[in-house]
Amino acid sequence: MKTPRTFILAIVMLALAVGAAAFWRNLRAWRVPGPGRRIVIPVFVLHRVLPGEATEYIISPERLDDLLRELNERHFIPISLDQLNAALREHGPLPKKPAMITFDDAYLDMYVHALPVLQRRGWPAVFFVPTGRITEPPAERVEWGDGPDPKAMQWPEIMALKKAGMEIGSHAWTHINLAKADPETVKTELAESRRMLAEKLGRAPLALAYPGGRHSREVRQATAEAGYQLGFLSSGGPLPLGIEDLYALPRMHVPGYVDAGAIVRSIPANEWR
Ligand SMILES: [Zn+2]
After folding, report:
1. CATH superfamily of 41-265
2. Mean pLDDT along residues 101-114
3. N or C: where does the chain have the smaller number of CB atoms within 10 Å of the terminal CB?
4. What is the pTM of this model?
């Protein structure tokens, strides 16, 4: 008996659809790695976002879009600070290729230029805010700013980021070098920022990014004592799961002139089994 060609075609199409669905489910599935497996989580750190600019600390919206497109095309899945914390402390599950986007310094251009790109590409991000610099009325110019016309966000913009599904972390209070500050100042910088974020956002921040990435053993210890669960550096490459010091978590600095494909390709593959 001759099987109709349309019937065979239908079977083949069905098999392909089932296979594609299984492949997609596998990529999206969350899992716990076996012991001793090498799993890395790229946590990218960016600063200013300005059209037409490309310096060490300024990226254009187009380059940011390139980075997120590359991550999506290579099936990276964004994770939250809670999910990262659970993975690091309690073997919480992760997607096969977890990643995180973070921004330091709370520049106004992040709200203007980065938020639309993040939303279009479906990426939440973490914004580390030097809370004492979010003044009312706004300061004319943020002192640590790089590039033209650096202005800080104000609370309405920060609240809008939160409402859009973004996370807010602490970048201490006045963006000083914590490694060089006296212990009392460090304590105040960490506690005041935490207090204000808790008051404004209804929940104390889980994580701190050290201003300028500068820290010391004492600063890391003070960060833990202040109640933060995680402390981030400004460089160091992809974050390895199983890292011992949760107050020295490396991030991947993204210069404005980055080749997004190259930086994403540089991330080593995870070994789940
Ligand atoms: Zn900073």
Report:
1. Glycoside hydrolase/deacetylase (3.20.20.370)
2. 96
3. N
4. 0.91
